[in-house]
């Protein structure tokens, strides 16, 4: 028994799915996962996990895993050695860069990969390939929230910790569905609400699980959140209920902001949003009466033409009511992927070095130039959205993308896929042969988190280490190893032998990571940035100062942008989002038996009113058509949705066409985040039941 026991290995890891950042032990024997065991020491989740963290790991041993590099030969892919694949990539990238300039190549990073891998990838783009054309998928989700926060309070991240949310008197959830998207975080809210009298308000198109429990649930018309947010600020000022001392001591721009609210009266707000004046006053009063308010939001706010402005309006409201800098207060844009926060933090963004220092700042650039021994480009690069446009206008000739299924997760996938067809050269690095890989010239097999070491940063800016459970599958390699090998072939002289050395370099260059080290992150330890050199972390931001030179926050006037109209013919509004069991495009969860067994198929939620009007029954097969494409799906009639509003899960479920066949290429004008939540569709019944 002792012998057998000794073959069982217990390894601490961090969940590969959502931004909550649960950590747990994986019990394994050879290549088999015996169980997933959370431990009390886990800083975020303690002994909890959700279904994905518990059952979502079979994909690691899936026979679909890429085990060798592939090179396109005409319409086919043939297996190649690493030597051959890297030779082709370095030759082609050099050729294209020399002929069309460094900015003719785009680099797309991965929010599923580690901080160290993202750091290395932006270093590859900037230092080796001499371009700032590097971005990650936060462009598709929370960049509007980060930008709204940078404008108002200075740092584009959650202002407190997940545990802290439980200390709020009032939690306001806007355009988010934490019970399915951030389950363990939602459990904390449910507990605080049930046991400690915390008040819960949900504002959402869909009656989601938290909305059902809420003390107040408000259903605005699609795309009108900014209006009610501004109206509540105005009402509080009009009643003299703003936090006068906080505004006087800690906030700039109060008068100008107040004036900007003039048109946002209760009457106007009620007319535009469909929320009654009484409900608005009730919410304003609840916010005023609570000592500590935090606001949580996600894609329902950000994925609109005015996503950045609405995020700004949320932060403005928190400032007006003095809800920053104390436990149980603040802004919580909920991060989607396990490392979408970290990918941005570590510099895979076109305008920022690691730690959000601008590439245009000569002093900052000089620091990196000295450390890396190169001259760096000054001009901010293209973001993901601009890369697609640049392919069509002939400026972008090649792309290198890792751990991102952009062909189906970017909006308007027909358009994006047509762009990929036009690329002269395309490298895709992933664990599976994704839909995006079908457009590649070279596909490189990468290793997921269980097959390497690294760190992830969760939604609350907490950095945690994960350790290696298995050897990389087949000939696959950790992404950081691949990036380093390629960089060295292209003239760099990198010699990182472990991710800890990459982190040490990032810590030496980016002030917000100054005190982060693998030693301090050992085991269950974690650090929440900014971390000073002596290791002092910052769980709550803005306790004394906001992150601007004068230490004061800024109220920023914002106006409503009406949502995109698809035209009269497209008479139904299609909302979309996550499901508890599956994750995003589904490449990992569909390959995890415990999960697909439970939820094998997607569905479209249709309201009882609409179902009756059109004679549609549960299980009917319908076709949705938008100006951009078509999707076939089965119907679930439910009062989760109302009237002419539909809800479709955003997963692609194997061969089913994903929601992004329907979405448009329109986007938030500030961040270029697509307006995924503003689709008009028409619905035809193909099979009545
Ligand atoms: Fe993983 Fe998120 Fe579930 Fe935690 S809540 S186990 S991080 S998917």
Describe this structure in words.
Keywords: 2Fe-2S, 4Fe-4S, Iron, Iron-sulfur, Metal-binding, Molybdenum, Oxidoreductase, Repeat. In the C-terminal section; belongs to the prokaryotic molybdopterin-containing oxidoreductase family. It comes from Thermoflavimicrobium daqui. The structure is a single chain. A hairpin with a 2-residue loop joins strand 2 (23-29) and strand 3 (32-37). Helices cover 32% and strands 19% of the residues. Helix 5 (143-152) crosses helix 16 and helix 10 (225-238) crosses helix 14 (277-289). A 7-stranded mixed sheet has the order 5-4-18-17-16-6-7, with helices on both faces. A 6-stranded mixed beta barrel has the order 23-27-24-26-25-28. Strands 10-9-8-12-13 form a 5-stranded parallel sheet. It has 689 residues and is of the alpha/beta class. The chain has 4 domains: 2-61, N-terminal domain of TfIIb (Single Sheet), CATH 2.20.25.90; 70-140 and 338-528, Rossmann fold, CATH 3.40.50.740; 143-334, Dimethylsulfoxide Reductase, domain 2 (3-Layer(aba) Sandwich); 572-687, Barwin-like endoglucanases (Beta Barrel). Bound molecules: iron/sulfur cluster (SF4). Residues 15, 17-18, 20-22, 45, 49-50, 52-53, 183-184 line the site of iron/sulfur cluster.
């Amino acid at each position: 028994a002792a012998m057998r026991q000794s073959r069982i290995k217990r390894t601490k890891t961090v969940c590969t799915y959502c931004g909550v950042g649960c950590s747990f032990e994986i019990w394994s024997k050879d290549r088999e996962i015996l169980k997933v065991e959370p431990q009390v020491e886990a800083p975020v989740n303690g002994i909890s996990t959700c279904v994905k963290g518990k059952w979502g790991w079979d994909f690691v041993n899936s026979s679909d895993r890429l085990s060798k590099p592939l090179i396109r030969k005409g319409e086919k892919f043939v297996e190649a050695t690493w030597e051959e694949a890297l030779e082709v990539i370095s030759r082609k990238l050099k050729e294209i860069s020399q002929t069309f300039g460094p900015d003719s190549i785009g680099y797309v990073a991965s929010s599923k990969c580690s901080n160290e891998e993202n750091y290395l990838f932006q270093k590859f783009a900037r230092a080796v390939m001499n371009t700032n054309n590097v971005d990650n998928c936060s462009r598709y989700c929370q960049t509007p929230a980060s930008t709204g926060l940078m404008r108002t309070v200075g740092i584009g991240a959650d202002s407190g910790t997940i545990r802290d949310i439980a200390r709020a008197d009032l939690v306001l959830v806007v355009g988010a569905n934490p019970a399915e998207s951030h389950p363990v975080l939602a459990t904390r809210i449910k507990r605080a609400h049930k046991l400690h009298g915390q008040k819960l308000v949900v504002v959402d198109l869909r009656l989601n699980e938290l909305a059902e429990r809420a003390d107040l649930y408000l259903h605005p018309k699609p795309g009108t959140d900014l209006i009610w947010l501004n109206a509540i600020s105005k009402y509080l000022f009009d009643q003299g209920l703003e936090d006068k001392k906080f505004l006087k001591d800690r906030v700039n721009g109060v008068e100008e902001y107040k004036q900007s609210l003039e048109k946002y009266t209760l009457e106007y707000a009620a007319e535009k949003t469909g929320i009654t004046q009484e409900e608005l006053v009730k919410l304003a009063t609840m916010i005023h009466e609570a000592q500590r308010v935090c606001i949580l939001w996600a894609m329902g706010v950000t994925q609109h033409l005015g996503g950045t402005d609405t995020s700004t309006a949320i932060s403005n409201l928190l400032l007006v009511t003095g809800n920053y800098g104390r436990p149980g207060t603040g802004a919580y844009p909920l991060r989607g992927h396990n490392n979408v926060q970290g990918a941005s933090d570590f510099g895979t963004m076109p305008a920022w070095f690691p730690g959000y220092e601008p590439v245009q700042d000569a002093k900052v650039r000089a620091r990196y130039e000295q450390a890396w021994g190169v001259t760096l480009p000054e001009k901010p690069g293209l973001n993901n959205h601009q890369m697609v446009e640049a392919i069509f206008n002939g400026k972008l000739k090649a792309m290198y993308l890792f751990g991102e299924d952009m062909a189906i997760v970017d909006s308007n996938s027909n358009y994006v896929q047509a762009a990929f067809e036009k690329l002269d050269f395309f490298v895709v690095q992933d664990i599976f042969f994704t839909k995006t890989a079908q457009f590649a010239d070279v596909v490189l097999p990468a290793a997921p988190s269980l097959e390497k070491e690294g760190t992830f940063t969760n939604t609350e800016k907490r950095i945690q280490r994960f350790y290696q459970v298995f050897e990389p599958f087949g000939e696959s390699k950790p992404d950081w190893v691949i990036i380093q090998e390629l960089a060295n072939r292209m003239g760099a002289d990198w010699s990182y032998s472990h991710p800890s050395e990459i982190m040490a370099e990032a810590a030496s260059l980016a002030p917000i990571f100054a005190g982060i080290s693998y030693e301090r992150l050992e085991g269950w330890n974690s650090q929440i940035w900014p971390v000073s050199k002596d290791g002092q972390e910052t769980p709550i931001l803005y306790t004394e100062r906001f992150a601007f030179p004068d230490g004061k926050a800024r109220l920023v006037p914002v106006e409503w942008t009406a949502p995109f109209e698809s035209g009269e013919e497209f008479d139904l509004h299609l909302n979309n989002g996550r499901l508890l069991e599956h994750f995003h495009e589904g490449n990992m969860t569909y390959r995890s038996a415990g999960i697909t067994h439970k939820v094998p198929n997607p569905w479209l939620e249709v309201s009882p009113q609409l179902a009756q009007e059109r004679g549609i029954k549960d299980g009917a097969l319908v076709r949705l058509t938008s100006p951009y494409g078509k999707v076939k799906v089965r119907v679930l009639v439910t009062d989760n949705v109302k009237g002419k509003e539909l809800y479709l899960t955003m997963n692609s479920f194997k061969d089913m066409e994903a929601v992004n066949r329907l979405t448009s290429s329109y986007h938030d004008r500030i961040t270029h985040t697509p307006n995924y939540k503003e689709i008009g569709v028409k619905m035809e019944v193909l099979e009545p039941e």
